[in-house]
Amino acid sequence: MRKIAILGSTGSIGTQALDVAARHRDRFEVTAIAAHSSAEKVFEQVRAFRPKIAALTIEPKEIPEDIRDCCQWMFGESVLLDVVRACEADDVLVSVVGIAGLAAVMETIKCGKRVLLANKEPLVAGGELVTAAAKAAGLPLLPVDSEHSAIFQCLQGAGGNTPERLILTASGGPFRTWEKKDIYTATKEQALRHPNWSMGQKITIDSASMMNKALEVIEARWLFDMPAEKIDVLIHPQSVIHSMVEFADGAVMAQLGTPDMRLPILYAMSWPERLETGGKRLDFETMKALTFETPDLDRFPGLGLAYEALRAGGAMSAVLNGANEIAVDAFLHDRIRFGQIAQLVEETMHAIPVTAHPTLDQVFESDRLARVKALELLATSRFAV
Ligand code: NAD
Ligand code: MG
Fold first, then answer.
1. 167 closest CA partner among 223, 96, 244
2. Strand partners, 72
3. From CA 297, how far away is CA 317, in angstroms rounded?
4. Can you tell me which atom of ligand 1 is nearest the CA of 204?
5. 8 lines ligand 1 (CB under 6 A)
6. CATH domain 149-383 topology
7. Nearest residue CA, atom 39 of ligand 1?
8. How far apart are CA 303 and CA 294, in angstroms?
9. Are 24 and 262 in contact (CB under 8 A)?
10. Cα 121 to ligand 1 centroid, rounded to whole Å
């Protein structure tokens, strides 16, 4: 029986994690759940899972009587850290959005609990620190992001051989075949319509701009200790191959499956064992062709910025991430064009000096400076809609 805490329990990943936990009640006990503001959803989850701790950043007006005393309630800005410290858990699934998860990831490691990592932004912003802390504590970082889970799964069968190359696959998103000028003026509704995956808003916009793949290149650099030159991105519109690794002899190992996040979520929860997810199986007989394309950095400049940030090193990836969080929010609030997301990130990166081997405080400071700069740029006439 493994005890699990879920940070971000009401989101796309969090709810799917609860779904697989419910499927295997004999294997997983959900001991804590935390979310931002969706109190009604948290109330339902408390009724269904009876965790010992339930937490919300924003305190609801009232807690329904039937669940008021059945668990410890926690509220407030620092709730993620409070939950990590107080919860009785072997594993903490970090599935909040954005850099908000970084402090929680570091605290989880400090408390000697395993991190199941869906939230990619902490690794993008503070990858060097997070991976060093996990290594020093002798704790694995179990990836939930489907591409990184695929690579992790391939490496389980690699007999200790180090791969020569990682190949991250990408669906290409809703604008894969669009012309540059049309991508530039794409609307929110168009950007939020992902062809293969149903996810939270932020990652869906990131997928459309391919900034998601940029974040994933940086995530892979740290999770698998691979230099950027050995991490390639390949467009694979069917999302059947979730990523691949290539070895010295040219052998390529891949992990395939239907696009269903319950597999990588449950694999992180049950590793090294495999359990039933309730998802559909691949049907090779009816499967259409698997196709591949080279990503177009001219139409999707965000992807190139990942390599630029990794070349610059230090806290530049934190700058990229902070600026992107501001840019996505600005796009979702109709303040900039879709095509200006990458432009804002790039200009912010060029305006902020890089801090080498940053401490955690310096990562947060670079993130803050990036946000201030991005907001400053947003206020100029060039970034009007
Ligand atoms: P989501 O928006 O659907 O859910 C986010 C959850 O986190 C919600 O429960 C929300 O209440 C909570 N939350 C957000 N900010 C918080 C804060 N500051 N404090 C406390 N709780 C907070 O997002 P999602 O799609 O589930 O994605 C979560 C993370 O997983 C992201 O980093 C994303 O990049 C990554 N990821 C998601 C998918 C996917 O299929 N959805 C796939 C791979 C990686
Ligand atoms: Mg992914």
1. 244
2. 53
3. 18
4. 25
5. yes
6. Rna Polymerase Sigma Factor; Chain: A (1.10.1740)
7. 199
8. 12
9. no
10. 10
Within the chain, how many helices (H) and strands (E) appear? 16, 11
Closest approach atom of ligand 1 to CA 100: 18
381 Cα to the center of ligand 2, angstroms: 34
CB distance 80 to ligand 1 below 6 Å:
yes
257 alpha-carbon distance from chain centroid: 19
Tokens of 57: 């950043």
Say whether 149-383 and 2-143 share the same fold. no
Q: How many residues would you count in the chain?
A: 385
Pocket test for ligand 1, best of 6, 198, 203, 223 (most atoms within 8 A of CB): 203
Q: How far apart are CA 231 and CA 139, in angstroms?
A: 24
196 lines ligand 1 (CB under 6 A): no
Q: Pick from 114, 84, 76: which is nearest to 101 by CA?
A: 84
Contact in structure between 307 and 226 (CB atoms under 8 Å): no
If you search the block for the tokens 């009401």, which residue do you land on? 10
Q: Which residue has the tokens 């009785």?
A: 88
Contacts of 88 by beta carbon, 8 Å cutoff, 6+ apart = 3, 31, 32, 52
Q: Which residue has the tokens 């391919």?
A: 210
**Rounded to whole angstroms, how far apart are CA atoms 12 and 349?**
30
- Specify the residue with its C-alpha closest to ligand 1, atom 22: 36
- What's the pLDDT at 384? 77
Q: In the chain, which ranges are E strands?
A: 2-7, 28-35, 53-56, 72-75, 91-94, 114-117, 141-143, 165-170, 231-235, 241-246, 252-256
Half-sphere exposure of 144 (CA within 13 A, CB side): 28
Chunked into runs of 10 residues, the chain (385 residues) has average pLDDT values of 98 98 98 97 98 98 97 98 98 97 98 98 98 98 98 97 98 98 97 90 97 98 98 97 98 97 98 97 94 98 98 98 98 97 98 96 98 97 85
Architecture in CATH of 2-143: 3-Layer(aba) Sandwich (3.40)
> For residues 157 and 66, what is the distance between their CA atoms, to the nearest angstrom?
48
Note whether 289 and 242 are within 8 A (CB). no
Q: Give the HSE-up count for residue 69: Cα atoms under 13 Å, Cβ half-sphere.
A: 1
Domain spans, the chain: 2-143, 149-383
